[in-house]
Fold:
Amino acid sequence: MKITARDIMSTRFHTLSPETPVQEAITLFKQASRKENRKLFGMMVLDDQGKLIGMLSMYDILLYMRPKHIHIWGMMEDIDVAGLVDAACSKMANVLVGDIMSCDVVTITPDTHKFMILDIMIKKHIRRLPVIDEGILVGIVYISDLFYDILDRFTE
Structure:
């Protein structure tokens, strides 16, 4: 019976450096998704010593691309969006992963019970949790893996 992070975590994961340009990180997201045969929406960011210092998710990228004052402009239907996407993409040219990554990373240990993982993910709206064992990154638990592990109980 799979009951802890150790049982459901993925030990194959992809990482980024804070010095990686975001445009390159997007390419790495695509390559990793092809390699893993599933879409990846976030990657862990490690410093030069291999220590976890952040996460970069699709949300971080999209949040940065979103015009800062859009709430002042009114409804999206009121905005001439022609060129907005191109402008947002060109804005990314000089942005590094470390500039927009989420630094406040919630982690778990290999012995964290899966219902504790579920509780953390729901309460904190987190889709992936790095697994740290004595300061070393050993895996990651994706919400989809947790979901399908629980679903397996219904089909056994």
